[in-house]
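Model it.
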Amino acid sequence: MLLHPLRCCAFLLLSLLGWAAGAQPLAEADLKAQILWRALQFVEWPGEVSPSQPLQLCLTVQGPLADALRDWDQRALNGRRLELRRVAGATAAATAGCHIVYVGADASVPAQLPRGLLWVGDNMGLTERGVMINLQPQQGRIVFDVDLHSARRAGLDINARLLRLARYVRTEGMP
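Modeled.
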């Protein structure tokens, strides 16, 4: 019997959560990092971002999730190497060369979104401010919201299989 792709993706995420629950309880930040890792596998960057170029993950704030993301330095994501960088703020100058930016609660995503730049966070209300993937705890589990409108404006393609697993997908302003 063949499994529907959505069921496969959901099964993988649920297996991960079940494994985490069955083993040792993971810290919230570690669980968020694992879910974000899985989510990033369903994001495609625009053609002008060379597939041979490493993806720069830029951390604008310190905190538990930023600490968990530090383990990703030099890991391969869909055949591309990730490089971590600390940056001073989420300004256009500070995030130049970044492909993924992790922002904090006071994030201010620019109105003119840089092409090929995915904004991620883990604080309440960030998708309303342009953060494209936002992780949140809800009733003892981690859920995520997606701002598809902002992602598309930045030239990013987020696979529908991931969108189906999101708690909320913001499409405001989409044609």
